[in-house]
Write a structure and sequence with these properties.
This protein is an alpha/beta fold and 134 residues long. The chain has one domain: Rossmann fold, CATH 3.40.50.2300. It is built from 5 helices and 5 strands, in the order βαβαβαβαβα. A 5-stranded parallel beta sheet has the order 2-1-3-4-5. It is globular, with a radius of gyration of 14 Å.
């Protein structure tokens, strides 16, 4: 994918796993997939940042990679609150989790804002395709 910085997405990673945060951030940077990455260790902090940006139309991420199992506010709670925000139709949200539960995969389908359910570990080729296609 050859894009200049203006066309590269701004990505939020909402995940409490430090190793995953580091790995996915570095991978996105090395692969030159994104112009910026913001990392949040829980849904509450990400939600607070989203609240600050809501309605302004600027500073919103292009993509959110959301884990389901986190402390403070998990991915499910984040999704419940996320549905109430303006401008979310401009954000592509992917659930990226280690859960292979069919129940979780089915439940995610009830959230229209979720683009896809991705099971960790994430293959960089597949991730690049998701970001490019969305």
């Amino acid at each position: 994918m050859t894009l200049d910085n203006m066309n590269k997405p701004y990505v939020w990673i909402v995940d409490d796993d430090d190793i995953y945060q580091y790995t996915i951030t570095k991978t996105l940077e090395i692969e030159n997939v994104t112009h910026d990455v913001q990392v949040f260790s829980d849904g509450e902090t990400a939600l607070e940042s989203l609240q600050e940006l809501a309605g302004t139309g600027s500073g919103l991420p292009d993509f959110i990679l959301l884990d389901l199992n986190m402390p403070i506010m998990d991915g499910w709670q984040f999704l419940d609150e996320y549905q109430n925000f303006p401008d979310i139709d401009t954000i592509k949200l992917f659930v990226v989790t280690s859960s292979v539960s069919e129940a979780d995969q089915e439940k995610v389908k009830s959230y229209p804002s979720v683009q896809d359910y991705v099971v960790k570990p994430v293959d960089i080729k597949a991730l690049k395709q998701l970001l490019a296609a969305s």
